[in-house]
Amino acid sequence: MRSVILSAAARLLFPLLLLFSVFLLFRGHNDPGGGFVGGLVAATAYALLSLTGGVSSARRVLPARPEVLVGTGLLLALGSGLPSLAAGRPFMTGLWAGFALPVVGKPGTPVLFDTGVYVTVLGIVLLILFTLQEEDEA
Amino acid sequence: MTLLSSLALHVGLPVLGLALLLTLVRLAKGPTIADRVVALDLLGTLGISVVGVVAVAARNAVYLDVAIVLALLSFLGTVAFAAYLERSR
To answer: Distances from the Cα of A90 to the Cαs of A79, A83, A113, B26, B31, in angstroms?
Structure first.
């Protein structure tokens, strides 16, 4: 499908959607949002690219293959539970750093877990989407 | 409750509900697939409006993020439908 309007709009919308997804990810601790919705919004950004320019153009922008993203996200979520074990507390107890970063707030293990969920959801949705679309294109 | 939020609740929502009903009629009748896709898109847009009006009525800005995500998904859905129709023709 070739549409100048759509591909121009997709190029403008793509960074905006990724920014919104990261905003949702970081806001999830105190307000509605979180890793799952953030990952879904990021996946729609890539879906928009793959609809306008084909799967190959979306794959070019993606930092890793979707399968790798799923594994990385799961490892990240699992790894977020380990620092509490090292500190002698129950598995997955939330630990926070003693300092606060500007805008984002105090870094801690819960945001690591949420980032893992974000990356996993992004990977799984894109894996399903790309597989279906490549089957259609072939 | 302020005048604006009660207006949104007692005027805005019924009007949007009526529009939703009329759009559903088009969705059910729609002679061609294109009619149904447009009706589905309008349904999504009306859903966004409902969320916006609820945000005003409840005086809670958090609802507006729901509207953003809904707008995004309904836009993408319509584009996907258009691509599908173009290919199947």
So the answer is: 14, 10, 16, 57, 62
CB atoms within 10 A of CB B87: 10
Cα–Cα distance list, A132 to A3, A60, A94, A135, B25 (Å):
22, 18, 38, 5, 32
- Contact assessment for residue B76 and residue A48, using Cβ atoms and an 8 Å cutoff: yes
**Residue type, position A55, single letter:** V
| Domain range for B14 | 3-88
Instruction: Enumerate helices (H) and strands (E) in chain B, giving the number of each.
Output: 4, 0
> Which member of B66, B68, B79 has the closest CB to residue A6?
B79
Residue A63 has pLDDT above 90, yes or no: no
Give the CA radius of gyration of chain B: 15
For helices A109-137 and A35-61, angle between their N-to-C axes, nearest 10 degrees: 50
| Domains identified in chain B, total number | 1
Domain span at A75:
4-137
- Provide the pLDDT confidence category of residue A38 given band limits of 50, 70 and 90: very high
Residue A37 at interface with chain B, using a CB cutoff of 8 Å: yes
B68: nearest CA in chain A?
Answer: A20
Counted domains in chain A = 1
Average pLDDT over residues A6-24: 90
Which residues touch A79 (CB under 8 Å, ≥6 apart)? Answer: A112, A116
Q: Does residue A90 have a pLDDT over 90?
A: no
- Structure ipTM: 0.76
